Amino acid sequence: MSNPGNPFLTGNSVADERAAAATAATADAARTGALPAPAPATGWSPAGVRSRNWARLPLGLIIPAILLAAWQAASATGLFSVVQLPPPAMVLGAAGELLGRGELGTHIAISTQRVVIGFLIGAALGLILGATVGLSKIADALLAPTIGALRAVPSLAWVPLLILWLKIGEDSKVTLIIIGAFFPVFTTVSLALRHVDRNLVEAARAFGLKGVRLLTTVQLPAVVPAVFSGLRLALAQAWLFLVAAELIASSMGLGFLLIDSQNNGRTDRLFLAIVLLAVIGKLTDALLGLAEKWAVKRWA
Amino acid sequence: MTAVLSSERAGNHAGTSSALPVSFRGLRRTFGTGNAAHTVLQDVTFDVAAGEVLAILGPSGCGKSTLLRAAAGLDSPSAGSVVIQDTPVHGIDPRCAFAFQEPRLLPWHTLQANVAIGLPTGCSAKEGKAKVSRLLELVGLDSFAKHRPREVSGGMAQRASLARALARNPGVLLLDEPFGALDALTRIKMQDLLLDVHQAEPTTVLLVTHDVDEALQLADRIIVLGAADDGQGATIVRTVDVPGTRPRDRASAELAALRVSLLASLGVDGH
Ligand SMILES: Nc1ncnc2c1ncn2[C@@H]1O[C@H](COP(=O)(O)OP(=O)(O)OP(=O)(O)O)[C@@H](O)[C@H]1O
Ligand SMILES: [Mg+2]
User: Touching check for B84 and chain A: CB below 8 Å?
Assistant: First the structure.
């Protein structure tokens, strides 16, 4: 049990006890100013939030649909050559062809795998180091200048070194993505921890909380929203760094598809890669967004 | 209500449940150093007997909260010390429970989980649950047990904060304007509640308040903080033994006279 001192954080029901308390409510309760049973919080219901979410989805699809129509129209007028702007149907055809040969699946799978591994490792390191620097003044003084300097190095500057050290394999690409995912998480977590409401921390300490329990009871819950905005930034960075890594040195993945299509003049595949990056990037972000919603509702 | 509390007392072995004497010895607190040094309290010396209710009065900003924080070990004095029973306070003191001037509840916990934070270490889960629900009932929040702090009013949050401090069964209960955010009616109810709790479990209470009537109603003794002779911070300018036993008649003439003279000590012309 992570919170030995607090019986209300162990997840078991207190309904029975509430029932007991209700029957025990006597004249005392009236004396002490007991108010009538709480009305449900106004203007908010889970159903309301959900229905609003369903309304959001079609709304968000309007602009992509317009873009698609404009794309179709522009390529149909003949203003652009097919090489400059292949029509949507051609891109779809390219997708079908690559899919049939089993290449598209491989590209998507390998890119997603790189992003997921790099993101998870980078975010975990960012959380751990960010928490250390955010909570300890000594760690801050010791680590912050170095990490700040490393952060100032433009991402692509690492590429030659990574290739030299790790060769053109998975390791060098994943490492670059780790670097990309690390910094947003590190920065947001360390800053947020430093700005946790001191009064709350003091109150918790006054009631004997310290160390890991203080961390899990007060400090971490307080930074949950910040952690998630860091994670979402980190995920975007991970995709960015993925494409950078794959553009430079790879034989598979969506970034490779981009550069390969450029070299072969296959603009339809180039478009395909871009659209796929947009869609997969958005999907992964939406997944993280769902986790964020759950966490913020739980903790904030 | 008394029965509820005393039965709990009989069955509760966790925490310091007996009242402890407190003594402040030559306490001084200066903030900042060099030119920016700013003395808030100086030469504060007084004793509080075990089980006594002591009210601390003084103008805003004179150092009342600072005094309580020193007793809880949340702040260390620049000179002097606070001694609880025979051991000086050094660092956060588990014998004290603090109800802060602001509720300071954790926004992501329900009221009951917040109150449970106050439970003394070594309190079993079953015992703790029962105690928390009794306390919530006592402060009139039993139907709000599952609500988050932002879903209740400021006065309700303050009552939850009081319940959290009471959950600790402290040897010394430190209350920093615990009824400040309450309406007049709820305030009187909570004052009565505090007296009931105190009667059932005679802990030592240090109560900071702005309200002279509240001090007269609740305290055995009142100390008034005011500017020190040399103008450097505040010190005790007056100590008053409140006559009579609780519950006191709110309309007593003797108390009315004392009220006027206390207001005068606070610099208010109370006619
Ligand atoms: N951490 C701190 N650093 C600097 N000055 C402080 C600090 N804490 C308190 N003070 C100063 O100490 C003085 C007394 O503060 P304190 O909060 O004890 O007053 P108070 O009597 O409780 O006032 P109120 O009745 O308004 O709550 C104030 O002038 C305040 O500026
Ligand atoms: Mg104060």
Answer: no
